[in-house]
Protein backbone atom coordinates (compact mmCIF):
# COMPACT_ATOMS: atom_id res chain seq x y z
CA UNK A 1 0.00 0.00 0.00
CA UNK A 2 1.48 3.33 -1.03
CA UNK A 3 2.23 5.82 1.73
CA UNK A 4 0.63 9.24 1.65
CA UNK A 5 2.99 12.10 0.89
CA UNK A 6 3.97 13.96 4.05
CA UNK A 7 2.69 17.18 2.60
CA UNK A 8 -0.84 15.84 2.24
CA UNK A 9 -0.95 14.91 5.97
CA UNK A 10 0.05 18.47 6.89
CA UNK A 11 -2.66 19.83 4.62
CA UNK A 12 -5.27 17.57 6.24
CA UNK A 13 -4.20 18.74 9.70
CA UNK A 14 -4.43 22.36 8.55
CA UNK A 15 -7.88 21.75 7.11
CA UNK A 16 -9.08 20.24 10.40
CA UNK A 17 -7.63 23.22 12.32
CA UNK A 18 -9.26 25.71 9.96
CA UNK A 19 -12.64 23.91 10.23
CA UNK A 20 -12.35 24.03 14.04
CA UNK A 21 -11.52 27.75 13.90
CA UNK A 22 -14.45 28.37 11.54
CA UNK A 23 -16.86 26.56 13.86
CA UNK A 24 -15.44 28.52 16.79
CA UNK A 25 -15.92 31.85 15.01
CA UNK A 26 -19.59 30.92 14.51
CA UNK A 27 -20.43 29.38 17.88
CA UNK A 28 -18.31 31.57 20.20
CA UNK A 29 -19.79 34.94 19.16
CA UNK A 30 -23.30 33.49 19.43
CA UNK A 31 -22.51 32.33 22.97
CA UNK A 32 -21.07 35.73 23.86
CA UNK A 33 -24.14 37.49 22.47
CA UNK A 34 -26.43 35.26 24.55
CA UNK A 35 -24.41 36.04 27.69
CA UNK A 36 -24.49 39.75 26.85
CA UNK A 37 -28.28 39.71 26.42
CA UNK A 38 -28.71 37.89 29.74
CA UNK A 39 -26.44 40.38 31.53
CA UNK A 40 -28.39 43.23 29.97
CA UNK A 41 -31.66 41.73 31.24
CA UNK A 42 -30.18 41.25 34.74
CA UNK A 43 -28.84 44.81 34.74
CA UNK A 44 -32.21 46.29 33.79
CA UNK A 45 -34.10 44.09 36.27
CA UNK A 46 -31.85 45.33 39.07
CA UNK A 47 -32.50 48.95 38.09
CA UNK A 48 -36.26 48.30 38.14
CA UNK A 49 -35.95 46.68 41.59
CA UNK A 50 -34.04 49.67 42.93
CA UNK A 51 -36.76 51.93 41.53
CA UNK A 52 -39.49 49.89 43.27
CA UNK A 53 -37.56 50.05 46.53
CA UNK A 54 -37.13 53.80 46.19
CA UNK A 55 -40.87 54.22 45.60
CA UNK A 56 -41.67 52.26 48.76
CA UNK A 57 -39.15 54.27 50.70
CA UNK A 58 -40.65 57.50 49.34
CA UNK A 59 -44.34 56.65 49.64
CA UNK A 60 -44.79 54.20 52.50
CA UNK A 61 -42.22 55.22 55.10
CA UNK A 62 -43.23 58.32 57.12
CA UNK A 63 -39.74 58.51 58.59
CA UNK A 64 -38.31 59.07 55.11
CA UNK A 65 -39.79 62.56 55.04
CA UNK A 66 -41.14 61.82 51.56
CA UNK A 67 -37.77 61.83 49.89
CA UNK A 68 -35.55 59.43 48.01
CA UNK A 69 -32.17 58.15 49.11
CA UNK A 70 -29.02 57.62 47.05
CA UNK A 71 -27.76 55.02 49.53
CA UNK A 72 -28.67 51.45 48.54
CA UNK A 73 -27.57 50.00 51.92
CA UNK A 74 -29.91 52.47 53.68
CA UNK A 75 -32.63 51.67 51.16
CA UNK A 76 -32.38 47.92 51.83
CA UNK A 77 -32.32 48.47 55.58
CA UNK A 78 -35.52 50.52 55.55
CA UNK A 79 -37.55 48.69 52.91
CA UNK A 80 -36.76 45.10 53.83
CA UNK A 81 -37.27 45.56 57.54
CA UNK A 82 -41.04 45.76 56.99
CA UNK A 83 -42.95 42.52 56.33
CA UNK A 84 -45.80 44.41 54.63
CA UNK A 85 -43.37 45.91 52.14
CA UNK A 86 -41.94 42.46 51.40
CA UNK A 87 -45.37 41.02 50.64
CA UNK A 88 -46.10 43.82 48.19
CA UNK A 89 -42.64 43.80 46.61
CA UNK A 90 -42.85 40.05 46.03
CA UNK A 91 -45.54 40.66 43.42
CA UNK A 92 -43.54 43.43 41.70
CA UNK A 93 -39.95 42.22 41.71
CA UNK A 94 -38.70 39.70 39.18
CA UNK A 95 -36.64 37.85 41.77
CA UNK A 96 -35.31 35.30 39.28
CA UNK A 97 -33.97 38.08 37.07
CA UNK A 98 -31.73 39.66 39.72
CA UNK A 99 -28.99 37.16 38.87
CA UNK A 100 -28.11 35.06 35.82
CA UNK A 101 -29.70 31.67 35.28
CA UNK A 102 -26.41 29.91 36.06
CA UNK A 103 -26.08 31.77 39.36
CA UNK A 104 -29.73 31.06 40.24
CA UNK A 105 -29.22 27.38 39.51
CA UNK A 106 -26.15 27.22 41.77
CA UNK A 107 -28.02 29.10 44.49
CA UNK A 108 -30.84 26.53 44.45
CA UNK A 109 -28.62 23.47 44.03
CA UNK A 110 -26.52 24.67 46.95
CA UNK A 111 -29.50 24.68 49.32
CA UNK A 112 -30.46 21.85 51.66
CA UNK A 113 -33.86 20.59 50.60
CA UNK A 114 -36.22 19.42 51.90
CA UNK A 115 -34.93 20.31 55.38
CA UNK A 116 -34.56 24.01 54.62
CA UNK A 117 -37.93 24.19 52.88
CA UNK A 118 -39.66 22.28 55.70
CA UNK A 119 -38.20 24.71 58.27
CA UNK A 120 -39.31 27.63 56.09
CA UNK A 121 -42.92 26.38 56.01
CA UNK A 122 -42.89 25.79 59.75
CA UNK A 123 -41.57 29.30 60.41
CA UNK A 124 -44.37 30.84 58.34
CA UNK A 125 -46.91 28.80 60.31
CA UNK A 126 -45.41 29.84 63.63
CA UNK A 127 -45.46 33.50 62.55
CA UNK A 128 -49.10 33.13 61.48
CA UNK A 129 -48.22 34.25 57.95
CA UNK A 130 -50.23 33.17 54.88
CA UNK A 131 -48.68 30.12 53.22
CA UNK A 132 -49.61 31.40 49.78
CA UNK A 133 -48.01 29.52 46.90
CA UNK A 134 -46.34 27.07 49.27
CA UNK A 135 -49.62 25.18 49.11
CA UNK A 136 -48.55 23.71 45.76
CA UNK A 137 -45.98 21.46 47.44
CA UNK A 138 -47.55 18.06 48.01
CA UNK A 139 -51.00 19.74 48.23
CA UNK A 140 -50.30 21.36 51.60
CA UNK A 141 -53.31 23.63 51.23
CA UNK A 142 -55.57 20.62 50.52
CA UNK A 143 -54.23 18.80 53.59
CA UNK A 144 -54.86 21.78 55.85
CA UNK A 145 -58.38 22.35 54.54
CA UNK A 146 -59.14 18.65 55.01
CA UNK A 147 -57.92 18.87 58.62
CA UNK A 148 -60.20 21.84 59.20
CA UNK A 149 -63.10 19.97 57.62
CA UNK A 150 -62.51 17.00 59.93
CA UNK A 151 -62.36 19.36 62.89
CA UNK A 152 -65.71 20.94 61.97
CA UNK A 153 -67.33 17.51 61.65
CA UNK A 154 -66.00 16.34 65.04
CA UNK A 155 -69.04 15.62 67.19
CA UNK A 156 -67.33 16.85 70.37
CA UNK A 157 -65.59 19.76 68.63
CA UNK A 158 -63.22 20.22 71.56
CA UNK A 159 -61.21 22.96 69.80
CA UNK A 160 -64.10 25.25 68.98
CA UNK A 161 -62.52 28.03 71.01
CA UNK A 162 -59.31 27.73 69.00
CA UNK A 163 -61.28 27.97 65.74
CA UNK A 164 -63.16 31.02 67.03
CA UNK A 165 -59.96 32.93 67.81
CA UNK A 166 -57.87 31.40 65.02
CA UNK A 167 -59.90 32.88 62.15
CA UNK A 168 -60.13 36.48 61.01
CA UNK A 169 -63.83 36.28 60.25
CA UNK A 170 -64.09 39.55 58.39
CA UNK A 171 -61.34 38.42 55.99
CA UNK A 172 -62.85 34.96 55.65
CA UNK A 173 -66.38 35.95 54.61
CA UNK A 174 -65.58 39.30 53.00
CA UNK A 175 -66.71 42.76 54.02
CA UNK A 176 -70.16 42.61 52.37
CA UNK A 177 -71.13 39.23 53.83
CA UNK A 178 -69.69 40.27 57.21
CA UNK A 179 -72.06 43.25 57.32
CA UNK A 180 -74.95 41.08 56.11
CA UNK A 181 -74.41 38.66 59.01
CA UNK A 182 -74.22 41.52 61.51
CA UNK A 183 -77.60 42.69 60.18
CA UNK A 184 -79.20 39.24 60.30
CA UNK A 185 -82.89 39.38 61.38
CA UNK A 186 -82.45 36.06 63.24
CA UNK A 187 -80.52 37.96 65.93
CA UNK A 188 -82.37 40.23 68.36
CA UNK A 189 -82.36 43.92 67.55
CA UNK A 190 -80.63 44.84 70.81
CA UNK A 191 -77.71 42.43 70.31
CA UNK A 192 -77.47 43.41 66.64
CA UNK A 193 -77.17 47.12 67.40
CA UNK A 194 -74.80 46.64 70.32
CA UNK A 195 -72.49 44.30 68.37
CA UNK A 196 -72.45 46.54 65.29
CA UNK A 197 -71.40 49.52 67.43
CA UNK A 198 -68.62 47.54 69.14
CA UNK A 199 -67.26 46.22 65.82
CA UNK A 200 -67.43 49.71 64.34
CA UNK A 201 -65.23 50.91 67.23
CA UNK A 202 -62.63 48.26 66.41
CA UNK A 203 -63.56 45.43 68.78
CA UNK A 204 -63.12 41.88 67.45
CA UNK A 205 -66.44 40.16 66.78
CA UNK A 206 -65.56 37.12 68.92
CA UNK A 207 -64.89 39.27 71.98
CA UNK A 208 -68.33 40.86 71.92
CA UNK A 209 -71.20 39.63 74.06
CA UNK A 210 -73.18 38.91 70.88
CA UNK A 211 -70.70 36.38 69.49
CA UNK A 212 -72.75 33.41 70.71
CA UNK A 213 -75.66 34.68 68.62
CA UNK A 214 -73.60 35.31 65.50
CA UNK A 215 -71.32 32.27 65.81
CA UNK A 216 -73.67 29.79 64.03
CA UNK A 217 -74.06 32.18 61.10
CA UNK A 218 -70.31 32.59 60.68
CA UNK A 219 -69.73 28.85 61.05
CA UNK A 220 -72.32 28.24 58.35
CA UNK A 221 -70.26 30.41 56.00
CA UNK A 222 -67.05 28.67 57.14
CA UNK A 223 -68.47 25.22 56.36
CA UNK A 224 -69.62 26.42 52.93
CA UNK A 225 -66.19 27.88 52.11
CA UNK A 226 -64.43 24.71 53.29
CA UNK A 227 -66.73 22.55 51.13
CA UNK A 228 -66.00 24.74 48.12
CA UNK A 229 -62.25 24.59 48.80
CA UNK A 230 -62.42 20.79 48.98
CA UNK A 231 -64.31 20.31 45.73
CA UNK A 232 -62.85 17.55 43.60
CA UNK A 233 -65.07 18.03 40.54
CA UNK A 234 -62.82 20.77 39.14
CA UNK A 235 -60.24 20.83 36.36
CA UNK A 236 -57.12 22.97 36.16
CA UNK A 237 -56.50 25.32 33.24
CA UNK A 238 -53.86 23.04 31.68
CA UNK A 239 -56.17 20.01 31.86
CA UNK A 240 -58.67 21.14 29.22
CA UNK A 241 -57.67 18.43 26.71
CA UNK A 242 -58.00 15.67 29.31
CA UNK A 243 -61.27 17.18 30.55
CA UNK A 244 -62.70 17.20 27.03
CA UNK A 245 -61.85 13.53 26.51
CA UNK A 246 -63.51 12.46 29.78
CA UNK A 247 -66.45 14.84 29.60
CA UNK A 248 -67.20 14.07 25.94
CA UNK A 249 -67.45 10.35 26.65
CA UNK A 250 -69.86 10.96 29.54
CA UNK A 251 -71.87 13.47 27.51
CA UNK A 252 -72.03 11.14 24.49
CA UNK A 253 -73.23 8.21 26.58
CA UNK A 254 -75.95 10.40 28.07
CA UNK A 255 -77.02 11.60 24.60
CA UNK A 256 -77.33 7.99 23.39
CA UNK A 257 -80.14 7.44 25.89
CA UNK A 258 -82.39 9.88 23.99
CA UNK A 259 -85.44 8.41 22.24
CA UNK A 260 -85.81 8.09 18.45
CA UNK A 261 -88.41 10.85 18.45
CA UNK A 262 -86.01 13.28 20.13
CA UNK A 263 -83.23 12.30 17.71
CA UNK A 264 -85.54 12.92 14.72
CA UNK A 265 -86.43 16.31 16.19
CA UNK A 266 -82.75 17.19 16.49
CA UNK A 267 -82.16 16.07 12.89
CA UNK A 268 -84.89 18.43 11.71
CA UNK A 269 -83.17 21.22 13.65
CA UNK A 270 -79.71 20.53 12.21
CA UNK A 271 -80.64 19.72 8.57
CA UNK A 272 -80.17 23.21 7.19
CA UNK A 273 -77.04 23.84 9.26
CA UNK A 274 -75.35 20.68 7.93
CA UNK A 275 -76.48 21.48 4.39
CA UNK A 276 -75.06 25.01 4.56
CA UNK A 277 -71.76 23.57 5.80
CA UNK A 278 -71.53 20.88 3.10
CA UNK A 279 -73.23 22.19 -0.02
CA UNK A 280 -70.22 24.21 -1.16
CA UNK A 281 -68.00 21.12 -1.04
CA UNK A 282 -70.59 19.04 -2.91
CA UNK A 283 -71.03 21.77 -5.53
CA UNK A 284 -67.31 22.00 -6.18
CA UNK A 285 -67.19 18.25 -6.76
CA UNK A 286 -70.14 18.27 -9.22
CA UNK A 287 -69.94 21.55 -11.10
CA UNK A 288 -67.19 20.63 -13.58
CA UNK A 289 -69.06 17.50 -14.66
CA UNK A 290 -72.32 19.47 -15.00
CA UNK A 291 -70.62 22.20 -17.02
CA UNK A 292 -69.03 19.68 -19.35
CA UNK A 293 -72.41 18.08 -20.05
CA UNK A 294 -74.41 21.31 -20.34
CA UNK A 295 -71.98 23.87 -21.80
CA UNK A 296 -72.85 23.73 -25.50
CA UNK A 297 -76.60 23.38 -25.12
CA UNK A 298 -76.82 26.02 -22.39
CA UNK A 299 -74.60 28.52 -24.25
CA UNK A 300 -76.81 28.32 -27.33
CA UNK A 301 -80.08 28.42 -25.40
CA UNK A 302 -79.07 31.37 -23.21
CA UNK A 303 -77.26 33.57 -25.69
CA UNK A 304 -79.22 36.66 -24.76
CA UNK A 305 -78.41 36.17 -21.08
CA UNK A 306 -74.66 35.89 -21.39
CA UNK A 307 -74.45 38.34 -24.29
CA UNK A 308 -76.07 40.99 -22.11
CA UNK A 309 -73.48 40.44 -19.38
CA UNK A 310 -70.69 40.40 -21.94
CA UNK A 311 -71.89 43.62 -23.54
CA UNK A 312 -72.02 45.31 -20.15
CA UNK A 313 -68.46 44.22 -19.43
CA UNK A 314 -67.24 45.43 -22.82
CA UNK A 315 -69.00 48.80 -22.42
CA UNK A 316 -67.49 49.30 -18.97
CA UNK A 317 -63.96 48.64 -20.21
CA UNK A 318 -64.37 50.55 -23.49
CA UNK A 319 -65.90 53.59 -21.83
CA UNK A 320 -62.82 53.98 -19.61
CA UNK A 321 -60.44 53.97 -22.64
CA UNK A 322 -62.79 56.21 -24.64
CA UNK A 323 -62.73 58.85 -21.89
CA UNK A 324 -58.93 58.94 -21.94
CA UNK A 325 -58.75 59.10 -25.73
CA UNK A 326 -61.37 61.85 -25.94
CA UNK A 327 -59.75 64.02 -23.29
CA UNK A 328 -56.48 64.04 -25.23
CA UNK A 329 -58.22 65.59 -28.24
CA UNK A 330 -60.06 68.37 -26.36
CA UNK A 331 -58.90 71.86 -25.67
CA UNK A 332 -58.45 73.01 -22.08
CA UNK A 333 -61.77 74.81 -21.99
CA UNK A 334 -63.68 71.78 -23.30
CA UNK A 335 -61.74 69.43 -21.00
CA UNK A 336 -63.08 71.34 -18.01
CA UNK A 337 -66.72 70.67 -18.90
CA UNK A 338 -66.15 67.13 -20.23
CA UNK A 339 -66.66 65.30 -16.85
CA UNK A 340 -70.19 66.68 -16.60
CA UNK A 341 -71.09 65.73 -20.19
CA UNK A 342 -69.21 62.45 -20.66
CA UNK A 343 -72.14 60.11 -19.92
CA UNK A 344 -74.39 61.85 -22.47
CA UNK A 345 -71.64 61.88 -25.08
CA UNK A 346 -70.93 58.19 -24.49
CA UNK A 347 -74.57 57.25 -25.12
CA UNK A 348 -74.35 59.03 -28.46
CA UNK A 349 -71.24 57.19 -29.68
CA UNK A 350 -71.50 53.80 -28.00
CA UNK A 351 -73.62 52.12 -30.70
CA UNK A 352 -71.26 53.05 -33.52
CA UNK A 353 -68.22 51.94 -31.52
CA UNK A 354 -69.94 48.66 -30.66
CA UNK A 355 -70.75 47.96 -34.30
CA UNK A 356 -67.18 48.66 -35.29
CA UNK A 357 -65.25 46.97 -32.46
CA UNK A 358 -67.41 44.53 -30.49
CA UNK A 359 -67.06 41.55 -32.83
CA UNK A 360 -63.27 41.75 -33.03
CA UNK A 361 -63.07 42.37 -29.24
CA UNK A 362 -64.98 39.10 -28.65
CA UNK A 363 -62.62 37.27 -30.96
CA UNK A 364 -59.51 38.75 -29.34
CA UNK A 365 -60.77 38.05 -25.80
CA UNK A 366 -62.17 34.58 -26.34
CA UNK A 367 -60.73 33.32 -23.03
CA UNK A 368 -62.40 36.11 -21.06
CA UNK A 369 -65.66 35.51 -22.98
CA UNK A 370 -65.58 31.79 -22.09
CA UNK A 371 -64.92 32.60 -18.45
CA UNK A 372 -67.82 35.04 -18.36
CA UNK A 373 -70.17 32.50 -19.98
CA UNK A 374 -69.07 29.94 -17.38
CA UNK A 375 -69.65 32.41 -14.55
CA UNK A 376 -73.13 33.34 -15.78
CA UNK A 377 -73.98 29.61 -16.14
CA UNK A 378 -72.66 28.83 -12.66
CA UNK A 379 -74.68 31.59 -11.01
CA UNK A 380 -77.87 30.44 -12.73
CA UNK A 381 -77.22 26.70 -12.41
CA UNK A 382 -76.34 26.88 -8.73
CA UNK A 383 -79.92 27.86 -7.85
CA UNK A 384 -81.58 24.94 -9.66
CA UNK A 385 -78.82 22.54 -8.51
CA UNK A 386 -79.45 23.28 -4.83
CA UNK A 387 -83.17 22.54 -5.19
CA UNK A 388 -82.44 19.27 -6.99
CA UNK A 389 -79.63 18.08 -4.70
CA UNK A 390 -81.03 18.97 -1.28
CA UNK A 391 -83.61 16.17 -1.15
CA UNK A 392 -81.12 13.64 -2.56
CA UNK A 393 -78.60 14.69 0.09
CA UNK A 394 -81.20 14.24 2.86
CA UNK A 395 -81.99 10.74 1.65
CA UNK A 396 -78.29 9.83 1.61
CA UNK A 397 -77.81 11.18 5.14
CA UNK A 398 -80.83 9.25 6.49
CA UNK A 399 -79.67 6.02 4.87
CA UNK A 400 -77.12 5.54 7.69
CA UNK A 401 -78.90 6.60 10.88
CA UNK A 402 -76.03 5.74 13.21
CA UNK A 403 -73.53 7.83 11.25
CA UNK A 404 -76.07 10.65 11.10
CA UNK A 405 -76.58 10.53 14.88
CA UNK A 406 -72.82 10.65 15.40
CA UNK A 407 -72.62 13.72 13.17
CA UNK A 408 -75.40 15.47 15.09
CA UNK A 409 -73.71 14.70 18.43
CA UNK A 410 -70.39 16.07 17.18
CA UNK A 411 -72.04 19.29 16.06
CA UNK A 412 -73.87 19.67 19.36
CA UNK A 413 -70.73 18.94 21.38
CA UNK A 414 -68.69 21.54 19.51
CA UNK A 415 -71.32 24.09 20.48
CA UNK A 416 -71.91 22.99 24.07
CA UNK A 417 -68.28 22.32 25.07
CA UNK A 418 -67.61 26.08 25.21
CA UNK A 419 -70.35 26.63 27.77
CA UNK A 420 -69.41 23.47 29.69
CA UNK A 421 -65.75 24.51 29.94
CA UNK A 422 -66.76 27.99 31.07
CA UNK A 423 -68.73 26.33 33.88
CA UNK A 424 -65.60 24.36 34.79
CA UNK A 425 -63.61 27.59 34.90
CA UNK A 426 -66.18 29.12 37.26
CA UNK A 427 -65.90 26.12 39.60
CA UNK A 428 -62.10 26.34 39.55
CA UNK A 429 -62.23 30.08 40.26
CA UNK A 430 -64.60 29.51 43.17
CA UNK A 431 -62.37 26.79 44.62
CA UNK A 432 -59.20 28.88 44.29
CA UNK A 433 -60.96 31.88 45.84
CA UNK A 434 -62.08 29.71 48.79
CA UNK A 435 -58.54 28.35 49.26
CA UNK A 436 -57.15 31.88 49.16
CA UNK A 437 -59.65 33.13 51.73
CA UNK A 438 -58.83 30.30 54.09
CA UNK A 439 -55.11 30.87 53.61
CA UNK A 440 -55.42 34.57 54.41
CA UNK A 441 -57.83 34.28 57.31
CA UNK A 442 -57.00 31.04 59.16
CA UNK A 443 -54.15 30.96 61.70
CA UNK A 444 -53.39 27.29 61.24
CA UNK A 445 -51.13 26.92 64.27
CA UNK A 446 -53.93 28.19 66.51
CA UNK A 447 -56.76 26.25 64.86
CA UNK A 448 -55.09 22.87 64.43
CA UNK A 449 -52.43 23.17 67.13
CA UNK A 450 -48.70 23.41 66.56
CA UNK A 451 -48.18 19.72 67.25
CA UNK A 452 -50.55 18.67 64.46
CA UNK A 453 -49.03 21.27 62.11
CA UNK A 454 -45.57 19.80 62.67
CA UNK A 455 -46.93 16.32 61.91
CA UNK A 456 -48.48 17.53 58.63
CA UNK A 457 -45.36 19.43 57.56
CA UNK A 458 -43.09 16.51 58.42
CA UNK A 459 -45.24 14.25 56.23
CA UNK A 460 -44.94 16.53 53.18
CA UNK A 461 -43.09 15.05 50.22
CA UNK A 462 -40.94 18.10 49.46
CA UNK A 463 -38.56 18.32 46.48
CA UNK A 464 -34.80 18.03 46.78
CA UNK A 465 -32.56 20.77 45.40
CA UNK A 466 -32.55 19.32 41.88
CA UNK A 467 -36.33 18.93 41.96
CA UNK A 468 -36.67 22.53 43.09
CA UNK A 469 -34.41 23.77 40.29
CA UNK A 470 -36.44 21.77 37.77
CA UNK A 471 -39.63 23.42 39.03
CA UNK A 472 -38.03 26.87 38.77
CA UNK A 473 -36.52 26.20 35.35
CA UNK A 474 -39.82 24.98 33.89
CA UNK A 475 -41.96 27.81 35.27
CA UNK A 476 -43.59 30.19 32.81
CA UNK A 477 -41.58 33.46 32.77
CA UNK A 478 -44.63 35.31 31.46
CA UNK A 479 -46.38 34.74 34.80
CA UNK A 480 -43.63 36.46 36.78
CA UNK A 481 -40.89 35.29 39.08
CA UNK A 482 -40.90 31.50 39.44
CA UNK A 483 -39.46 31.79 42.97
CA UNK A 484 -42.52 33.85 43.91
CA UNK A 485 -44.91 31.48 42.09
CA UNK A 486 -43.52 28.59 44.14
CA UNK A 487 -43.73 30.54 47.39
CA UNK A 488 -40.02 30.14 48.21
CA UNK A 489 -38.56 33.55 47.43
CA UNK A 490 -38.04 34.16 51.16
CA UNK A 491 -35.43 31.39 51.23
CA UNK A 492 -33.23 33.25 48.78
CA UNK A 493 -34.19 36.88 49.35
CA UNK A 494 -30.99 37.90 51.17
CA UNK A 495 -28.71 36.39 48.52
CA UNK A 496 -30.75 37.97 45.74
CA UNK A 497 -30.99 41.39 47.35
CA UNK A 498 -27.26 41.43 48.07
CA UNK A 499 -26.71 41.42 44.31
CA UNK A 500 -29.00 44.39 43.61
CA UNK A 501 -26.47 47.13 44.26
CA UNK A 502 -23.87 46.04 41.68
CA UNK A 503 -23.92 46.41 37.91
CA UNK A 504 -23.28 42.84 36.66
CA UNK A 505 -20.74 44.03 34.05
CA UNK A 506 -18.82 46.77 35.84
CA UNK A 507 -19.20 45.17 39.31
CA UNK A 508 -19.70 48.69 40.68
CA UNK A 509 -22.74 50.21 42.45
CA UNK A 510 -25.46 51.75 40.32
CA UNK A 511 -25.44 55.53 40.10
CA UNK A 512 -28.49 56.96 41.90
CA UNK A 513 -29.09 60.67 41.51
CA UNK A 514 -31.75 62.56 43.49
CA UNK A 515 -33.01 66.00 42.44
CA UNK A 516 -34.79 67.97 45.16
CA UNK A 517 -36.86 70.74 43.61
CA UNK A 518 -39.38 73.10 45.11
CA UNK A 519 -42.31 71.18 43.61
CA UNK A 520 -41.37 67.51 43.35
CA UNK A 521 -38.47 65.24 44.17
CA UNK A 522 -37.14 63.07 41.35
CA UNK A 523 -34.73 60.22 40.99
CA UNK A 524 -32.68 58.65 38.19
CA UNK A 525 -30.85 55.32 38.19
CA UNK A 526 -28.00 54.60 35.80
CA UNK A 527 -25.88 51.63 34.94
CA UNK A 528 -22.36 52.96 35.71
CA UNK A 529 -21.02 52.21 32.21
CA UNK A 530 -20.15 54.75 29.54
CA UNK A 531 -19.93 53.36 26.00
CA UNK A 532 -17.73 55.52 23.76
CA UNK A 533 -16.61 54.89 20.21
CA UNK A 534 -13.11 53.86 21.27
CA UNK A 535 -13.27 52.50 24.79
CA UNK A 536 -15.78 51.31 27.40
CA UNK A 537 -15.34 52.70 30.91
CA UNK A 538 -17.09 52.34 34.25
CA UNK A 539 -17.70 55.34 36.46
CA UNK A 540 -16.42 54.73 39.97
CA UNK A 541 -17.87 56.97 42.68
CA UNK A 542 -15.92 57.97 45.78
CA UNK A 543 -18.56 57.70 48.58
CA UNK A 544 -16.83 60.37 50.67
CA UNK A 545 -16.30 63.07 48.09
CA UNK A 546 -18.81 61.89 45.47
CA UNK A 547 -16.07 62.40 42.88
CA UNK A 548 -16.15 60.03 39.90
CA UNK A 549 -13.24 58.36 38.17
CA UNK A 550 -13.10 56.22 35.05
CA UNK A 551 -12.08 52.56 35.04
CA UNK A 552 -11.47 50.92 31.66
CA UNK A 553 -13.39 47.64 31.24
CA UNK A 554 -11.21 45.12 29.43
CA UNK A 555 -12.53 42.56 26.99
CA UNK A 556 -11.01 39.10 26.67
CA UNK A 557 -8.32 38.58 24.01
CA UNK A 558 -10.34 35.83 22.32
CA UNK A 559 -13.37 38.08 22.12
CA UNK A 560 -11.28 40.84 20.58
CA UNK A 561 -9.86 38.42 18.00
CA UNK A 562 -13.00 36.68 16.77
CA UNK A 563 -15.71 39.08 17.96
CA UNK A 564 -19.09 38.30 19.42
CA UNK A 565 -20.71 40.97 21.55
CA UNK A 566 -19.37 44.06 23.25
CA UNK A 567 -19.59 45.68 26.66
CA UNK A 568 -22.16 48.45 26.44
CA UNK A 569 -24.40 50.68 28.49
CA UNK A 570 -27.46 48.68 29.54
CA UNK A 571 -29.70 51.68 30.00
CA UNK A 572 -31.09 54.04 32.64
CA UNK A 573 -34.28 55.06 34.40
CA UNK A 574 -34.66 58.81 34.14
CA UNK A 575 -36.04 61.34 36.60
CA UNK A 576 -39.62 60.76 35.44
CA UNK A 577 -39.36 56.97 35.70
CA UNK A 578 -39.07 56.33 31.94
CA UNK A 579 -36.81 53.39 31.04
CA UNK A 580 -34.40 53.92 28.15
CA UNK A 581 -34.74 50.30 26.97
CA UNK A 582 -38.51 50.73 26.58
CA UNK A 583 -37.99 53.83 24.43
CA UNK A 584 -35.38 52.18 22.23
CA UNK A 585 -37.14 48.82 22.11
CA UNK A 586 -34.10 46.91 23.41
Distinctive features:
single chain, 586 residues, mainly alpha, three-stranded antiparallel beta sheet, 24 helices, 6 strands, extended
Please explain how this structure is put together:
Helix content is 68%, strand content 5%. The longest helix is centred in the N-terminal third of the chain and has 55 residues, at 6-60. It contains 24 helices and six strands. It has helices at residues 6-60, 72-79, 83-92, 101-109, 115-126, 140-153, 160-166, 169-173, 175-182, 189-200, 211-229, 240-255, 260-301, 303-329, 332-364, 366-399, 401-441, 444-448, 450-459, 465-473, 482-485, 489-498, 557-562, 580-584, and strands at residues 511-516, 521-526, 529-531, 536-541, 548-552, 572-573. The protein is mainly alpha-helical and 586 residues long. The chain is extended. The protein has a three-stranded antiparallel sheet, with helices on one face.
Number of helices: 24
Helix content: 55-70%
Q: What does the main sheet amount to? A: 3 strands, antiparallel
Backbone shape: extended
Number of DSSP E strands: 6
Note the gap between the termini.
63 Å
Briefly note the structural class of the backbone: mainly alpha
Radius of gyration: 40 Å
Average pLDDT, to the nearest integer? 85
* Helix-strand string: HHHHHHHHHHHHHHHHHHHHHHEEEEEHEH
- Uncertain parts: none
Task: Assess the beta-strand content as a share of residues.
Answer: under 5%
User: Largest beta sheet: what is the strand line-up?
Assistant: 1-2-6
Task: Compose a concise summary of this entry.
The protein has 24 helices and six strands.
Please specify the SSE layout and strand pairing.
Layout lengths: L5 H55 L11 H8 L3 H10 L8 H9 L5 H12 L13 H14 L6 H7 L2 H5 L1 H8 L6 H12 L10 H19 L10 H16 L4 H42 L1 H27 L2 H33 L1 H34 L1 H41 L2 H5 L1 H10 L5 H9 L8 H4 L3 H10 L12 E6 L4 E6 L2 E3 L4 E6 L6 E5 L4 H6 L9 E2 L6 H5 L2
Antiparallel strand pairs: 1-2, 2-6, 3-4, 4-5
Helix pairs in contact: 1-2, 5-19, 6-11, 11-17, 12-17, 13-16, 14-15, 14-16
Amino acid sequence: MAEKPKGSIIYEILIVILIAVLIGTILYPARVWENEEELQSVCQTRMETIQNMELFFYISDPSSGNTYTDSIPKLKEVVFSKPDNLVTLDTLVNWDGLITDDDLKQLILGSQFPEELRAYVLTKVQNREPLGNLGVWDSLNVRLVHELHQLLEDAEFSRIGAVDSGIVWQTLVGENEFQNILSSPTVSSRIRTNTQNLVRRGQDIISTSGWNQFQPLFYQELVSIVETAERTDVWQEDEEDQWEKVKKEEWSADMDTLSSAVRDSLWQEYQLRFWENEKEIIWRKERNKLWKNERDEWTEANTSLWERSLTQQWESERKATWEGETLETLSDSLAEIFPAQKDSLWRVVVDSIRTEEYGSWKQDNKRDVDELIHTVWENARRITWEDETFQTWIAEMEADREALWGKIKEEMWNTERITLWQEEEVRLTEKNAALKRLDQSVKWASVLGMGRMEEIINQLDLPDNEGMWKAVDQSDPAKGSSLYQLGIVGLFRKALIDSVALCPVAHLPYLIQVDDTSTIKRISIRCPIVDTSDVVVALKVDPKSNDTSEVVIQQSTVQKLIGGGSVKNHGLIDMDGAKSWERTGS
